[in-house]
Design brief:
The protein is an alpha/beta fold. The chain contains 10 helices and 6 strands.
Length: 243
Amino acid sequence: MGSKNEALCADGRLKSVAIIMDGNGRWAKKRLLPRTAGHEKGAAIIENVLKVFRELGVHYLTLYAFSTENWKRPKEEVDAIMNLAYKYVDKVYMDRLRSESELAIRFIGDKSALPEKLREKCIEIENMQKDAPFVCNIALNYGGRAEIVHAANELVKKGLPITEENLSHAMYTYGTPDPDLIIRTGGNFRVSNFLIWQGAYSEYVILDTLWPDFGREDIEKCVKEFYSRKRRFGGIDEEDSKK
């Protein structure tokens, strides 16, 4: 790791990052291309994004790939996204996991609604490496409200009381720390039903950059912004307490 990156994450506080990958369609439209071209370009940059965050000392990255609401899009676009997801899971991620032992890929969301071959491939990938030091969660058919309902139903089935701790343990993301930082590309200021429970105290950074153009410079900008903020978690600073 270079000295610049060490300076960015010197105190080691930033461990878990989540990204709402917005702007694929607009990126394609600006170039007079079909929306599917934007999704292809957006998928292609994930490898580099993983690389940069790992260099910066982040251990958990959660990417919002397809929401429970995205099924409302035209069937042609949905089919293209599912085919693209299968292509990357089957070839890119499978090859990546075979060549290194420090990366684990997990899929969060309701896998039951995914095409069968994609669902089976996701499960295969998840079983390859479970204890790697860097974890990438890919949210497929994910919705924050649906996740909370799912977690509550799991507790009811097991006869467990509905407490914050029990709900956290029943979430799709169990094992991944709540995100310190949530980044949204594409310039829109909304949560979009993403990590509603886990993001209660996350720092948000909104970028105008469209997802297919998201790169190292944007990542470092977000990390610097994160470190410029004071995280109080409902409390006050020692300095403020003396005023």
